[in-house]
């Protein structure tokens, strides 16, 4: 893990050097222009931001789509309903975001004042790592929180964060998931697991929430 992270940091360091020497019409070049004009990001912060954009913009969306397909494969009636009426898929995506958040935790927060949770008081100035999987299943906020309800209409999940910390890529992630599920179910409406459910393994770690792999059996649908 540490070796892979070090390799990514080195890769982005080299990439940013090349972008600085030969800017293009892309996000990293735009961030470099801000840094070179003396704005807020240092060189280390810029490298960290590039790394965050890679992980947050790819792995989380892959987990979202994988988690959605996994849930549909275990619920044939729901899968068939979504295949028959793609207009229902946006609501399904929101429920998957709530029930099986692709990111297990938020980025670190720092308490600005003492906070009491239950019988524990967190002093001001402490780092806090929030479990999105827990808050999105809060029974005080979501009735029957452990149940997948594709018709749930109360919204309010925190899979993308909140306020000034709301995920910049949320609209893109939602769009990618909607398109992927719509096209997948149109081409393979009877998609199902190719292995017993108990053979599936979740990734371990504090950051991401997804499967190590998702073997599926594709069924032919109408030609598109």
UniProtKB/TrEMBL annotation:
Pfam families: p450. PROSITE patterns: CYTOCHROME_P450 (PS00086). It comes from the Bacteria. InterPro entries: Cyt_P450, Cyt_P450_B, Cyt_P450_CS, Cyt_P450_sf. Belongs to the cytochrome P450 family. SUPFAM superfamilies: Cytochrome P450. Keywords: Heme, Iron, Metal-binding, Monooxygenase, Oxidoreductase. It comes from Actinoplanes philippinensis. GO terms for molecular function: heme binding; iron ion binding; monooxygenase activity; oxidoreductase activity, acting on paired donors, with incorporation or reduction of molecular oxygen. This is Cytochrome P450. The keyword Membrane does not apply. The keyword Glycoprotein does not apply. PANTHER family: CYTOCHROME P450 YJIB-RELATED, P450, PUTATIVE (EUROFUNG)-RELATED.
